[in-house]
Automatic annotation (TrEMBL):
<dbReference type="InterPro" id="IPR036412">
    <property type="entry name" value="HAD-like_sf"/>
</dbReference>
<dbReference type="Pfam" id="PF00689">
    <property type="entry name" value="Cation_ATPase_C"/>
</dbReference>
<feature type="transmembrane region" description="Helical">
    <location>
        <begin position="861"/>
        <end position="884"/>
    </location>
</feature>
<dbReference type="InterPro" id="IPR008250">
    <property type="entry name" value="ATPase_P-typ_transduc_dom_A_sf"/>
</dbReference>
<dbReference type="InterPro" id="IPR006068">
    <property type="entry name" value="ATPase_P-typ_cation-transptr_C"/>
</dbReference>
<dbReference type="GO" id="GO:1902600">
    <property type="term" value="P:proton transmembrane transport"/>
</dbReference>
<dbReference type="Pfam" id="PF00702">
    <property type="entry name" value="Hydrolase"/>
</dbReference>
<dbReference type="GO" id="GO:0030007">
    <property type="term" value="P:intracellular potassium ion homeostasis"/>
</dbReference>
<dbReference type="InterPro" id="IPR001757">
    <property type="entry name" value="P_typ_ATPase"/>
</dbReference>
<dbReference type="Pfam" id="PF13246">
    <property type="entry name" value="Cation_ATPase"/>
</dbReference>
<dbReference type="GO" id="GO:0005524">
    <property type="term" value="F:ATP binding"/>
</dbReference>
<keyword id="KW-1003">Cell membrane</keyword>
<dbReference type="InterPro" id="IPR050510">
    <property type="entry name" value="Cation_transp_ATPase_P-type"/>
</dbReference>
<keyword id="KW-0547">Nucleotide-binding</keyword>
<keyword id="KW-1278">Translocase</keyword>
<keyword id="KW-0812">Transmembrane</keyword>
<dbReference type="InterPro" id="IPR023298">
    <property type="entry name" value="ATPase_P-typ_TM_dom_sf"/>
</dbReference>
Length: 886
């Protein structure tokens, strides 16, 4: 949607030009690079462009001159999405001149690198060609001299060509391809899909892994890992992140006991003060657009004229054809009768509270609502989605939200009886005189039976809400309670009068901001004064000590900490909140905090079975893979767009770096130790050749706040120092680095190698298979085992030597050309291919990667094949030959 000639017009993205004014709305995709002119709580998801996992809040204010375009908050990039709010921007770049187009241009101009296996096989083919021609020419000349240049043509065919055929390993290509396919099939069972088979060997030779953080080292989903309330910390315990107190919560719900305060209030604030929404679709309809289209068509069919009969129903008793009857809509007269019965809003709310109490939806017992439609996805910013998923582990977010006016519905008691048909969802319009506006409802339909329609659902907007932004750093919601709320912070509040209603203000945000807006704190059932006047008291002082200790501990571990607070109060029923309107109380009650992070992958390693439950011992799967890389001598570099503190916390948790820091004395201010260091993308821009040399001497490096150009620069600098680089990625911003790497590993996307499970541990399994391939193609010098290539080349000398004897000594031919081909293709290939099933050595992942200059066909292998193994086989063949012709 653009503004042209002072009018809003909807045009194709290809028709947008520089200077157009583009209207950005929630859910829309940015069609070009925009300079934001107006922003109303505008939040942009830029992970596909910059790699930054958290949505960015945009502003119209000018950025400083030293701020890069990726860190500027007044620019929206092409390919990003608007998650919240709206705004207006002017087009500054289009097409290939955008940031996304520049990334694609980098990818197009990078030539695909040749794999080492291809280079080795081509070099060996050249060596065999020269060797075969030289040997054939020498044997042909000697044979001609011995025969005094008679029958030259026969000598050329039988001698020259046969020598060439005997030297060429005809089974080598089939042997190599067969082994590659066997290993590729074995790797596919480990969720590693190989598109270019020759890269298996390249993966086994990898010396550096440049791993993307999100989705590779982590689970790529924000989860609640810790809760702090009642002056204590509750930490997750399990791969599925189901908390101990939530398991206790399940048992208390079943036994009817009360939950520990203020946990129910924390779960309520998580659910209500939250903009994340569920997508409900039926099993047969996966797309919301399809469901809405069917709803619209069904509504038009039911409300427009007589129904068209598409089937015939015959009554079994009378034998007459019956017509389907329409549902009886409530008439306006009937609604007037309801209104004339002195049915006020207070009566409706009282009936609603009674109905809610009969359903046992109270503030202490949460149960899952039985919904026919499945919950397929949760939409919203990652932190809100994490909170909703946390509550959904043992409670129902929708059941909690039904108590409040939260983008949901007020249940109005209008019980009627209807006959209606199974036409999906049909929309009715109901005009109620005591409601100020026209309301609509969606009614589910059943088949030909008299059912009780419990109520009409009337959509009512939220009372008041202030969304989160980076300046305020908090979100606030004011809602009206639909059921009686007792206990907690309502003990000192009088019951609402007849013209009043019970409201609640809920707030979540940065802990230091929320704490400043609170005067009391909930500790179990007790309210403790934490205002500045009472800070010297024992309880308040202990609360502050525990609060700041927990906050700093979670922050140092790289977790995002969110605090929660609420306050109930009475206000008029039709009260309006906002600037210049009714004010809500500012003396809130502090409830607790939650820590959120994108955790590393976990794996179960053992299970203990008891009488009533199972206990799983878990360990980080990524940490185990990192430890295996360290044992194999592989350097691991973590590249992310997140903050250095977050990156350091994750790297420490998975065992990539240590806990102690030793800061360099250089002006770069790089955190480093002997084996690892942490640098940012801005620091890389100042690095020179000597700085790169000093940096890449570390075995483990964390690159934070990097953009696509800097990631490509890292790969190029590592390759210049003779390393074999494997790069992982899953977005558009990783395309250039994936294309330039020796091995590009994509997470669920198209690349040389695709990880179907997006797991870093799968990469380590692939490296092990690649090393096994190299060992099976050639023989390990320390074991002197005759494997595929050594086995294939050992037959060349026994095949050539009989021909040389025939030419030089005039003996009968020991082998004909057809016999040589039959030996190469029939008798040699099956044993050579079977060596691909050779099991790896126990210490294959405890040795350093092979040298970049290591040859597949080394001098030692040729010496072993031609001199040692070949000579022994030749002596045996000559002995058998002489025993026949002597």
């Amino acid at each position: 949607m653009v503004i042209r000639d002072c009018e809003e017009k909807e045009i194709n993205s290809e028709d947008i030009v520089v200077g157009d004014l583009v209207i950005v709305r929630s859910g829309s995709r940015i069609p070009a690079d925009l300079r934001i002119l107006q922003a109303n709580c505008l939040t942009i998801e830029v992970s596909e462009v910059t790699g930054q996992t958290n949505p960015v809040e945009c502003t119209a204010e000018a950025a400083a001159a030293h701020v890069s375009v990726f860190d500027a908050r007044n620019v929206a990039f092409k390919g990003s999405y608007c998650t919240e709010g709206d705004g207006l921007g002017i087009v500054i770049r289009t097409g290939k001149f955008t940031v996304l187009g520049g990334i694609a241009n980098l990818h197009e101009h990078i030539p695909p690198p040749k794999s080492k296996l291809q280079t080795e096989l081509r070099a060996f083919a050249n060596f065999i060609t020269v060797l075969a021609i030289c040997m054939a020419v020498a044997v042909f000349l000697i044979g001609c001299i011995v025969a005094r240049f008679e029958n030259i043509l026969d000598h050329f065919v039988v001698g020259f060509l046969v020598i060439i055929v005997a030297n060429v390993p005809q089974g080598l290509p089939a042997t190599v391809m067969s082994q590659l396919r066997i290993i590729a099939r074995r790797m596919a069972q480990k969720n590693i899909y190989i598109k270019k088979l020759e890269l298996i060997d390249e993966l086994g030779a990898a010396t550096v892994i440049c791993a993307d953080k999100s989705g590779t080292l982590t689970m790529n989903q924000m989860v609640v890992t810790d809760l702090w309330f009642n002056n204590r910390m509750v930490t997750e315990a399990g791969v599925d992140l189901k908390h101990p107190h939530l398991r206790a919560m399940r048992s208390t719900i079943k036994s009817g006991e009360r939950l520990e305060d203020p946990l129910p209030d924390i779960l309520t604030v998580m659910s209500v003060c939250n903009r994340a929404q569920f997508e409900h679709v039926r099993r047969s309809m996966r797309r919301v657009s399809t469901m809405r289209a069917l709803q619209k068509s069904a509504s038009e069919a039911m409300l427009s004229g007589p129904m068209k009969k598409k089937f015939t129903i015959v009554d079994t008793r009378t034998g007459q054809v019956s017509e389907p009857r329409r549902p009886t809509l409530p008439s306006v007269e009937g609604l007037k009768e309801l209104n004339s019965a002195n049915m006020s809003i207070e009566d409706i709310e009282l009936a609603t509270r009674k109905m809610s109490s009969r359903k046992q939806i109270n503030d202490r017992k949460y149960s899952h609502a039985h919904i026919k439609n499945r919950k397929n996805d949760i939409f919203g910013i990652p932190s809100d989605v994490a909170l909703v998923k946390y509550v959904e582990l043992n409670a129902s977010v929708e059941a909690i939200r039904q108590r409040y006016h939260v983008r949901r519905s007020l249940i109005v008691l209008l019980r009627i009886y209807l006959f209606y048909f199974d036409f999906g969802f049909v929309k009715y319009g109901v005009l109620i005189s005591f409601v100020q506006c026209f309301k609509q409802t969606y009614v589910a339909r059943s088949i030909y039976r008299k059912v009780e329609m419990p109520c009409y659902i009337i959509s009512i907007s939220i009372v008041h809400e202030i969304p989160f932004n980076s300046i305020r750093r908090w979100q606030l919601i004011v809602s009206r309670c639909l059921i009686d709320v007792s206990g907690g912070d309502t003990e000192d509040i009088q019951a609402p009068k007849k013209s009043e209603a019970r409201y609640v203000v809920m707030m979540k945000g940065a802990p230091e901001i929320i704490l400043c807006k609170c005067k009391k704190a909930r500790l179990n059932k007790e309210l403790v004064d934490i205002d500045e006047k009472f800070r010297e008291k024992c309880q308040a002082r202990y609360f502050y000590e525990r609060f700041f200790f927990a906050w700093e501990s979670l922050g140092n571990e790289g977790r995002r900490v969110i605090a929660f607070a609420q306050r109930h109060f009475n206000a008029p029923i039709n009260a309006k909140f906002g600037s210049g309107e009714e004010k809500w109380p500012e003396d809130l009650v502090f409830l607790g905090m939650a820590a959120i992070m994108d955790p590393p992958r976990y794996v179960r390693i053992h299970t203990y079975s008891f009488q009533y439950f199972k206990c799983f011992l878990i360990r980080p799967e990524t940490a185990a893979a990192i430890s295996q890389c360290k044992g194999a001598g592989i350097k691991v570099f973590m590249i992310t767009g997140d903050h250095p503190t977050t990156a350091k916390a994750l790297a420490t948790q998975i065992g990539l770096i240590g806990d102690r820091l030793e800061e360099k004395t250089s002006p770069k201010k790089t955190l480093s130790s002997r084996d690892w260091c942490i640098v940012t993308g801005e620091q890389l821009q100042e690095y020179k050749h000597t700085d790169w040399d000093a940096l890449l001497r570390h075995k483990y490096i964390v690159f934070a706040r990097t953009n696509p150009e800097q990631k490509l620069c890292i790969v190029q600098e590592v390759q210049r120092r003779g390393e074999t680089v494997a790069v992982t990625g899953g977005g558009v911003n990783d395309a250039s680095a994936l294309a330039h790497a020796n091995v590009g590993i994509a997470m669920g996307l198209s690349a040389d190698i695709v990880l179907l499970d997006d797991n870093f541990a799968s990469i380590v399994m692939g490296i092990e298979e690649g090393r096994l391939l190299f060992d099976n193609l050639r023989f390990p010098s320390f074991l002197l085992k005759q494997l595929s290539l050594a086995y294939t080349f050992a037959h060349l000398w026994p095949e050539v030597f009989p021909i040389m004897l025939s030419f030089m000594l005039g003996l009968p031919h020991g082998l004909s050309p057809m016999q040589i081909l039959s030996i190469d293709l029939a008798s040699e290939m099956p044993p050579a291919v079977s060596l691909a099933y050779e099991q790896p050595e126990q210490d294959i992942m405890h040795t350093r990667p092979r040298n970049r200059g290591a040859r597949l066909m080394s001098k030692g292998l040729l010496m072993y094949a031609y001199v040692f193994a070949g000579t022994g086989i030749t002596i045996g063949c000559i002995a058998a030959y002489l025993s026949v012709y002597w």
